[in-house]
């Protein structure tokens, strides 16, 4: 960890500690939720619903405070604060959790399920509940709900892409989890892990040649200013979860624990259906801003990325989950 990263982590921890102290008078219990998303992202509306409905259902005993644009620090730092028992939560994908419970990584594997309905069946299944229990017991993290769908991820470039061969030599930003980097490499690009907040500057300064993301995040980060093409590969169906401290949740009265989990599931649906309903207008907005949104035959990408499951040991798991998704 370099000096800047250490300093960032210390600052984030200090901010979180001061927030915890200052909010103690507002309610019996306070949860600070960190997200990399901007406030105009459809998913953020779900977080606002979570905040409001938790306050209502708990008669003001529980307060949820929202911190968009990673105000409390990088996701990984907030996860570590949660593991240490701090009352913080963060919206993260399964790849970030695979370091604790390997099975979570498969949620970010390529072409696992289509749209929200299929992947929702997976993350509300008995099999998923087993993973969540392991995460609670072995990593000290509690899954409030994992039905926060952000859309399908596409390629963002300044070069026209028609197939895997066009990605040769392209430095493609992606999160650093093995399932993500493995997918991008299998698609033909060179995976280049970089914090989301640095993607805009990375593209404009040509530190990276491209990125991959879901449409709400592209618009939220104003990437239309630094890309020319969105190629609709839909290679990863981005489902995320609201993750917090297991120790903190366990310390709450049982009725408040129930409220947190029930309201998180309801809010995840609000966020996900809001995302689904916004996709068409976001595509139009990108086109109006000069970005070419291209539909292509994704069959070559599906074939190229099939190896990712076996390389990461998810072959058998893929079959089980696709059966659940298609049920």
Question: What features would you describe in this structure?
Answer:
The protein is an alpha/beta fold. It folds into two domains: 3-149 and 238-278, D-Maltodextrin-Binding Protein, domain 2, CATH 3.40.190.170; 154-236 and 281-325, D-Maltodextrin-Binding Protein, domain 2 (3-Layer(aba) Sandwich), CATH 3.40.190. 49% of the residues lie in helices and 21% in strands. The protein is built from 14 helices and nine strands. The chain has helices at residues 3-23, 42-57, 75-83, 94-97, 115-123, 126-139, 178-187, 199-204, 215-220, 246-251, 254-288, 299-305, 307-311, 315-325, and strands at 29-34, 62-67, 88-93, 141-157, 171-174, 190-193, 210-214, 229-245, 292-295. Strands 1, 2, 3, 4, 5, 6, 7, 8 and 9 form a nine-stranded mixed β-sheet that branches. Helix 2 (42-57) packs antiparallel against helix 11 and helix 5 (115-123) packs across helix 14 (315-325). The longest helix has 35 residues, at 254-288. Residues 2-12 and 18-25 have low confidence and may be disordered.
């Amino acid at each position: 960890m370099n000096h800047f990263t250490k300093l960032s982590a210390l600052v984030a921890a200090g901010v979180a500690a001061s927030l915890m102290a200052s909010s103690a008078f507002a309610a019996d219990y306070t949860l600070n939720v960190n997200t990399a998303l901007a406030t105009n992202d459809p998913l953020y509306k779900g977080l606002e619903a979570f905040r409001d409905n938790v306050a209502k259902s708990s008669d003001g005993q529980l307060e949820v405070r929202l911190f968009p644009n990673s105000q409390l620090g990088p996701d990984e730092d907030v996860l570590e604060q949660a593991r240490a028992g701090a009352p913080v939560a963060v919206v993260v994908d399964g790849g970030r959790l695979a370091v604790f419970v390997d099975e979570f990584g498969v949620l970010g594997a390529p072409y696992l399920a289509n749209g929200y309905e299929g992947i929702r069946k997976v993350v509300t299944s008995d099999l998923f509940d087993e993973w969540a229990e392991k995460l609670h017991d072995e990593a000290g993290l509690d899954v409030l709900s994992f039905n926060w769908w952000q859309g399908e991820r596409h390629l963002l470039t300044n070069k026209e892409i028609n197939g895997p061969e066009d990605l040769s030599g392209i430095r493609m930003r992606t999160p650093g989890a093995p399932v993500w980097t493995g997918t991008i490499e299998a698609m033909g690009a060179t995976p280049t892990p970089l914090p989301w907040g640095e993607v805009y500057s990375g593209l404009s300064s040509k530190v990276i040649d491209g990125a991959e993301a879901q449409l709400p995040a592209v618009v939220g980060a104003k990437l239309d200013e630094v890309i020319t093409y969105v190629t609709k590969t839909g290679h990863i169906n981005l489902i995320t979860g609201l993750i917090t401290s297991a120790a903190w949740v366990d310390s709450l009265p049982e009725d408040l624990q129930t409220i947190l989990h029930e309201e998180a599931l309801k809010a995840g649906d609000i966020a996900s259906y809001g995302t689904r309903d916004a996709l068409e207008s976001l595509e139009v907005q990108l086109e109006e801003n000069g970005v070419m949104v291209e539909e292509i035959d994704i069959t070559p990408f599906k074939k190229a990325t099939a190896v990712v499951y076996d390389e990461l040991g998810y072959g058998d798991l893929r079959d089980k989950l696709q059966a659940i998704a298609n049920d």
